[in-house]
């Protein structure tokens, strides 16, 4: 068994080299999830490489309509041999269907085959006949050396429990779910015999269906480095806070700033970015709520010329509306910009916005961990901001799944001072370093956050 290119960008890397050949691989999922697109895209790539490609659609369409439909795919290769089977014949006995497919295979002798969809064959048969059909179909394919893709409309449970997934060599399951007003699609390699040694089929991967076909978004991979991390400290841009951290933030660390609305989390992040820009260190800001022009205006009120730094190429901003985010695609956009500019400081403002597209806290933590680990080994110091809806104290920090990733945590609060509310700041965590545990009052002045006096022992 050898591996042959799938024709789908990044899928070969996931499989450790490509699809096994000869083999029978099932592409399963619900209606409209992209099964036909994936199968035809792979078949078209094979035809473009000079392989003999055969497409057997189970359809009630006329040959003319079918050809028109296939040309809706911009990637479709006209060298593909198309031999449709009329859907009405699927009500025949299993032997007749097998003979029809066998005759087509024998007359074409293909290198690659797609049968779409296989699960409609024998739909009206008794369960015992369907089982015999599947076994006979598998046995028939053993006589050919082709790489065969079949599609099937199966639920996730059926993809694990029905007979077809058990007799095939591989199962690629395409899933989709609607979150808010958008659909997120994911690919799972349920099983694949004969994959390469470098395969990574244990994860699921986001993908999109675009005009050019399916595009898979790889997960970020942390870089390997023997370099010692965090061997110097960076200023936060706030003198009193630097003193509390005994010199500033350790380089290549991840800092989490948490607090309620109006406590100045974004402002703290901007001061951190500005402190680097003024030293000539490239910076990046990731936005979800405020757009670039709004943030530029608000920063100008503090005397900070973000636009000037952007024009000089020292600062980049990436804005994404939370409802439109494809999380892994978003991480890859960050990666591309980071590698293009040599960023040293990055502000990720409003990480809680990801909860609308990654509602599972474990999955959210893994998503952020992959990003921050990648950035750390790119020699980048990261500040995340996270908004909470209630007053926080060391013993009741919300969002612990994200908090555990952070090397440092800065807590911003409103504190009842009798006839007014004071803003207070404290450093709850600073990994591998000493820090001041006191609570400090601060104000938001004309030039950002200013710590005004030492506070008290508790909140």
**What is the top-level CATH class of the largest domain?**
Alpha Beta
Whole-number radius of gyration? 28 Å
Alpha-carbon distance between the termini?
A: 67 Å
Biggest sheet record: 10 strands, mixed
Number of helices: 14
Shape: elongated
Helix fraction bin: 25-40%
Strand content: 25-35%
Q: Regions with pLDDT < 50 over 5+ consecutive residues?
A: 455-459
Entry summary:
30% of the residues lie in helices and 29% in strands. It is an alpha/beta fold and 459 residues long.
Please give the structural blueprint.
Blueprint: E1 2-4, H1 11-15, E2 19-21, E3 23-29, H2 35-48, E4 53-59, H3 63-70, E5 81-82, E6 85-86, H4 94-108, E7 112-116, H5 127-141, E8 147-153, H6 156-161, H7 163-167, E9 170-179, E10 182-192, E11 204-210, E12 213-217, E13 233-234, H8 239-244, E14 249-250, E15 254-259, H9 265-277, E16 283-287, H10 292-300, H11 306-311, E17 315-319, H12 327-341, E18 345-349, H13 361-376, E19 381-387, H14 400-403, E20 408-416, E21 421-430, E22 440-445, E23 448-454
Describe this structure in words.
There is one protein chain. With 459 residues, the protein is an alpha/beta fold. It folds into two domains: 2-217, Rossmann fold (3-Layer(aba) Sandwich), CATH 3.40.50; 233-454, Rossmann fold, CATH 3.40.50.300. The protein has 14 helices and 23 strands. It has helices spanning 11-15, 35-48, 63-70, 94-108, 127-141, 156-161, 163-167, 239-244, 265-277, 292-300, 306-311, 327-341, 361-376, 400-403; strands at 2-4, 19-21, 23-29, 53-59, 81-82, 85-86, 112-116, 147-153, 170-179, 182-192, 204-210, 213-217, 233-234, 249-250, 254-259, 283-287, 315-319, 345-349, 381-387, 408-416, 421-430, 440-445, 448-454. Strands 3, 4, 5, 6, 7, 8, 9, 10, 11 and 12 form a ten-stranded mixed beta sheet that branches. Strand 7 (112-116), helix 5 (127-141) and strand 8 (147-153) form a beta-alpha-beta unit. Helix 4 (94-108) packs parallel to helix 5 (127-141) and helix 12 packs parallel to helix 13 (361-376). The longest helix has 16 residues, at 361-376. It is elongated. Mean pLDDT is 85; it is low at 455-459.
């Amino acid at each position: 068994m050898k591996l042959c290119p799938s024709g789908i960008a990044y899928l070969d890397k996931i499989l450790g080299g490509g699809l096994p050949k000869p083999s029978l691989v099932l592409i399963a999922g619900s209606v409209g999830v992209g099964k036909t697109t994936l199968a035809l895209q792979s078949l078209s790539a094979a035809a473009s490489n000079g392989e003999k490609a055969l497409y057997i659609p189970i359809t009630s369409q006329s040959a003319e309509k079918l050809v028109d439909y296939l040309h809706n795919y911009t990637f479709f290769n006209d060298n593909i041999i198309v031999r449709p089977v009329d859907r009405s014949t699927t009500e025949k006995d299993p032997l007749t269907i097998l003979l029809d497919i066998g005759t087509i295979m024998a007359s074409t002798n293909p290198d690659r085959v797609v049968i779409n969809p296989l699960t409609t064959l024998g739909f009206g048969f008794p369960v015992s006949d369907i089982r015999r059909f599947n076994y006979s179909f598998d046995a028939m394919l053993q006589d050919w050396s082709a790489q065969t893709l079949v599609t099937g409309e199966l639920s996730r449970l059926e993809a694990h429990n029905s007979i077809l997934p058990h007799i095939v060599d591989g199962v690629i399951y395409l899933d989709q779910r609607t979150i808010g007003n958008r659909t997120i699609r994911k690919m799972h390699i349920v099983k694949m015999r004969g994959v390469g040694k470098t395969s990574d089929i244990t994860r699921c991967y986001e993908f999109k269906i675009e005009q050019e076909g399916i595009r898979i978004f790889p997960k970020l991979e942390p870089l390997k480095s023997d370099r010692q991390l965090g061997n110097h400290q960076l200023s936060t841009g706030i003198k009193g806070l630097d003193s509390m951290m005994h010199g500033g933030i350790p380089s290549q660390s991840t800092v989490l700033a948490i607090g309620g609305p109006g406590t100045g989390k974004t402002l703290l992040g901007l001061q951190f970015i500005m402190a680097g820009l003024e030293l000539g260190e490239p910076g990046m800001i990731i936005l979800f709520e405020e757009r670039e022009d709004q943030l530029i205006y608000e920063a100008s009120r503090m005397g900070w010329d973000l636009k000037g730094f952007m024009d000089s190429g020292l600062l980049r901003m990436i804005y994404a509306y939370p409802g439109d985010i494809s999380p892994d695609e978003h991480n890859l956009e960050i990666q591309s910009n980071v590698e293009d500019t040599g960023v040293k400081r990055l502000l990720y403002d409003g990480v809680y916005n990801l909860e609308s597209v990654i509602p599972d806290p474990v999955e959210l933590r893994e998503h952020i961990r992959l990003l921050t680990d990648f950035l750390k080994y790119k020699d980048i110091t990261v500040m995340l901001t996270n908004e909470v809806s209630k007053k926080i104290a060391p013993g009741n920090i919300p969002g612990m799944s994200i908090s555990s990733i952070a090397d440092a945590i800065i807590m911003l609060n409103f504190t009842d001072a009798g006839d007014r509310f004071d803003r207070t700041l404290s450093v709850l965590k600073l990994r591998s370093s000493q820090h001041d545990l006191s609570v400090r009052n601060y104000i938001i002045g004309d030039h950002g956050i200013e710590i005004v006096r030492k506070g008290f022992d508790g909140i």
